[in-house]
Design a protein that fits this description.
The structure holds two protein chains of two kinds. Chain A is mostly helical. Chain A starts with a helix and ends in an 8-residue tail after the last helix. Chain A has a two-stranded antiparallel sheet with strand order 1-2. In chain A, 76% of the residues lie in helices and 1% in strands. Chain A has eleven helices and two strands. Chain A has one domain. Chain B is of the alpha/beta class. Chain B has two domains: 242 residues, P-loop containing nucleotide triphosphate hydrolases (Rossmann fold), CATH 3.40.50; 66 residues, 2-Layer Sandwich (Alpha-Beta Plaits). Chain B is built from 13 helices and 13 strands. The longest helix of chain B has 18 residues. Chain B is globular, with a radius of gyration of 25 Å. Classes of the chains: A mainly alpha, B alpha/beta.
Chain lengths: 267, 333
């Protein structure tokens, strides 16, 4: 594998995302507004609960978790489904398919650039601010290493799911409904909108058997646990690794099978 | 030498859902399994040699794009064989992609937000072009077009003509054996069209690249192609040299003459004198459609001059456009 051609896609992606300065600013403001809503919502929830600790999490715990989940979303969400759908509808997908590179990889690496910029412009600042504001509520130790490993796998799982759903667009030739459905399912079941600790027991059990919690819940759990047991770490990372492989294989196969069916617009 | 593209009895069928009318019909369609088979390409065979420029013509919806998509490997033929540079395109898409370049007139493969030079650098890495090949290609480009002002301009700020030009350069960058140009001059002004034709011709000569060109502009065909293939409704109508095409409907030329007096009346008189040819008249001219296999235009003119006073004359050749139009409308007999 020649890494250079992939890295130059990343490079172009970084340059491209830096072209749209205003877009970045608007996104940061949007995230900020969302966080304000989250703050007041959970404040009300904790006030009505009457106790400081709900489902084993304090208000601060919950807030840190959700703020970081939002920041994580900011750079992990690649809008792959949109991109595939749009490319299919406009027929541009033909040009992408004619690159001497697998489409799955081509799309991923084209996106990886905005990834890098998002990491430095939204996730890292949020992380640092949360750290400062909460006076070190985020433990800084070996958990950071686990977190990084976990995020890399989370990115891969997230992309595979997106790519899988995007592939469905080959058949439906419509994007909107599918994308919304995917987004709601992923964000809810991954613990990005509500911490999984708050789920009712039966649902919690189901969720742990699904791949989604490996995307947001897993890395955040590893990050926020200052003194993780070795077993816990291995279980979480192991689960992620399994899902990583399974989803990669599934989405690749599904794409290969589907591509044979492809009819591109404008013949 | 074996052909670079070999197409043998290729057919492509699409399954299309039978849509019903109205809201009720649309609702029913949601559960319908009622498909009909549409044959977009019907038993086409042709060979294309390395270095040829072939015009691939046909009315809208004739199956041109479908054929091209099969040659590039995006679509798999329903039956028949396609070999492009020895590869079966849809089985070896990535390998095939290395050998071909594509330009779709209405879409761009360039990176929208970035200056052109960045797109070139990216393509250099993606196609793994060596530094020396890249340099010599850029030299060639500089000698052919004034590329310098374009290189540092973001693609989204380019005019359509500049963008198309850039797209063509991008498609040739990795020195592919075959370049597919799908309506490259669509929507361009006259001077840009001619610039692009000159560029394509030069690149074809310089690199011996095979070019498959689809277009609706007969100017492109006259300027570039030595050979054309015409298809309609998926069937191949014509596959031969362009000269041969002109003799296809006999060797007709139109002789136009101007005379004093009422042209309609005089046309009737001339028609009696020349029973072999059809004569018509409009406001300014009397037109005689001369079949040169029966008698030469000069003989007809001489004969007319004896009995009429001719003030002015014009000679019209039948153009490629006329012939193609005739083929589209009437088919080949």
């Amino acid at each position: 594998m020649n890494l250079k051609k992939y890295l130059s896609l990343t490079r172009a992606g970084i340059m491209e995302s830096l072209q749209f300065r205003l877009g970045t600013v608007v996104m940061v403001i949007g995230n900020l507004l969302y966080l304000i809503v989250v703050y007041f919502l959970w404040k009300a929830i904790y006030a009505s609960a009457g106790t400081d600790v709900v489902n084993g999490m304090t208000f601060t715990d919950t807030l840190i978790y959700l703020v970081l989940a939002t920041a994580l979303f900011g750079f992990m969400e690649m809008y792959t489904v949109w991109e595939i759908g749009r490319n299919i509808q406009s027929g541009k997908i033909v040009l992408d398919l004619l690159k001497p590179m697998e489409y799955r990889r081509y799309l991923f690496w084209s996106y990886s650039g905005s990834f890098v910029t998002q990491f430095f412009f939204t996730f890292l600042p949020t992380f640092i601010i949360v750290g400062i504001v909460t006076h070190g509520a985020i433990p800084l130790g070996v958990n950071l290493l686990y977190f990084v490993i976990s995020v890399v796998m989370a990115v891969s799982i997230n992309y595979s799911i997106d790519f899988f759903v995007g592939t469905i667009c080959l058949f439906t030739e419509s994007i909107w409904g599918i994308n919304i459905m995917k987004q709601v399912i992923v964000l809810l079941l991954s613990g990005a909108t509500i911490p999984i600790a708050f789920f009712p027991e039966p649902l919690k059990t189901i969720v742990y058997y699904l791949p989604f919690q490996s995307i947001y819940n897993a890395p955040l759990t590893l990050l926020l646990d200052g003194d993780p047991k070795f077993e816990t770490v291995i279980t979480i990372l192991g689960t992620q690794l399994i899902w990583c492989i399974v989803m990669t294989v599934l989405s690749t196969l599904f794409w290969k099978v589907s591509l044979r069916q492809i009819t591109v617009n404008g013949g | 030498m074996s052909a670079i593209i070999q197409i043998k009895n290729v057919t492509k069928e699409f399954k299309v859902l039978n849509r019903r009318e109205g809201l009720k019909g649309s609702l029913k369609d949601l559960f319908s399994r009622d498909y009909k088979i549409v044959r977009a390409v019907d038993n086409i065979s042709m060979d294309i040699e390395q270095g040829e420029i072939v015009g691939y013509l046909g009315p809208n919806g004739a199956g041109k794009s479908t054929t091209i998509k099969m040659m590039t490997g995006v679509l798999e033929p329903t039956s028949g064989e396609i070999l492009v540079g020895g590869n079966i395109p849809y089985q070896n898409r990535a390998k095939n992609a290395q050998e071909i370049g594509v330009v779709f007139g209405q879409r761009s493969q360039l990176w929208w937000a970035l200056p052109l030079i960045e797109s070139f650098k990216l393509l250099k890495d993606i196609y793994q072009i060596s530094d020396s090949d890249y340099k010599s290609m850029m030299h060639l480009y500089q000698s052919l077009v004034d590329i310098e002002p374009l290189l540092h301009k973001p693609v989204r700020q380019m005019s359509l003509g500049q963008r198309t030009l850039s797209d063509i350069l991008a498609a040739f960058l990795h020195n592919p054996k075959i370049v597919f140009l799908d309506e490259p001059t669509i929507g361009l002004d006259v001077s840009m069209k001619s610039k692009i034709r000159i560029l394509i011709n030069a690149l074809n000569k310089e690199k011996n690249t095979t070019v498959i060109l689809t277009t609706h502009d007969m100017g492109d065909v006259d300027a570039l192609c030595r050979r054309i293939v015409i298809i309609d409704k998926g069937k191949m109508l014509y596959n031969n040299d362009i000269e041969h095409l002109k003799g296809f409907f006999g060797s007709y030329r139109t002789l136009k003459i101007r005379m004093d007096g009422d042209l309609k009346q005089q046309a009737e008189v001339i028609q009696k004198e020349l029973p072999d040819f059809s004569v018509s008249a409009d406001e300014e001219w009397i037109s005689v459609l001369v079949d040169e296999e029966k008698s030469k235009v000069m003989e007809v003119l001489n004969q007319l001059q004896k009995s009429h006073e001719i003030r002015d004359m014009q000679l019209e050749e039948i153009s490629t456009e006329d012939v193609i139009k005739k083929i589209y409308e009437e088919g080949v007999e």
